[in-house]
């Protein structure tokens, strides 16, 4: 028997769903990556310490996993499946696809430590 396929969402689909408050976005990159640049509204649960049981309840929202390129989020989806959690959706291409689509991110200003929206 084969494993079910991970459901891929495009960056524009994730953006629209975030704007509509329909998803809970989980970034599985490491804390330094998340601190340097992230998608506004994402929560950080690094793959290196990933525990599907520690994920927050999504309520009526769809939980979507995201990383840098899509590889780690697909791995996290597999970990969720193995742990018996019905989490199977991720941002195809990760934050790289998000930025390639011209969508905004949040960055840290190295001089001041302030967060800045980046288009």
Helix-and-strand structural type: alpha/beta
Q: What is the terminal separation in angstroms?
A: 44 Å
**CATH homology superfamily name:** Rhodanese-like domain
Main β sheet profile: 5 strands, parallel
Helical stretch count?
Answer: 4
Strand percent estimate: 15-25%
Would you state the CATH class?
Alpha Beta
Question: What's the CATH architecture name?
Answer: 3-Layer(aba) Sandwich
Give, in order, the helices and strands.
EHEHEEEHEHEE
How helix-rich are the residues, as a percent range?
25-40%
Instruction: Give the neighbour order of strands across the main sheet.
Output: 1-6-5-2-4
Instruction: Give the total of domains.
Output: 1
Write a structural description:
This protein is of the alpha/beta class. The chain has a single domain, classed as Oxidized Rhodanese, domain 1, CATH 3.40.250. The chain contains 4 helices and 8 strands. The chain has a 5-stranded parallel beta sheet. The mean pLDDT is 91.
Sum up the structure in keywords:
single chain, Oxidized Rhodanese, domain 1, five-stranded parallel β-sheet, three-stranded antiparallel β-sheet
SSE order and pairing:
Blueprint (H helix, E strand, L loop, with lengths): L6 E3 L1 H9 L3 E5 L3 H6 E2 L4 E2 L17 E5 L4 H12 L6 E3 L2 H7 L4 E4 L6 E4 L1
Parallel strand pairs: 1-6, 2-4, 2-5, 5-6
Antiparallel strand pairs: 3-7, 7-8
Can you give me a brief rundown of this structure?
This protein has four helices and eight strands, in the order βαβαβββαβαββ. With 119 residues, the protein is of the alpha/beta class.
């Amino acid at each position: 028997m084969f494993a079910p396929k991970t459901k891929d969402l495009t960056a524009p689909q994730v953006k629209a769903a975030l704007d509509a408050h329909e998803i809970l976005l989980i970034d599985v990159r490491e804390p330094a990556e998340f601190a340097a640049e992230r998608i506004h509204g994402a929560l950080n649960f690094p793959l290196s310490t990933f525990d599907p049981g520690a994920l927050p309840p999504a309520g009526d929202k769809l939980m979507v996993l995201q990383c840098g390129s899509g590889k780690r989020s697909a791995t996290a989806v597999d970990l969720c499946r193995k742990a018996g959690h019905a989490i199977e959706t991720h941002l195809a291409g990760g934050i790289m696809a998000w930025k390639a689509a011209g969508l905004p991110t949040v960055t840290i200003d190295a001089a001041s430590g302030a967060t800045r929206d980046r288009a």
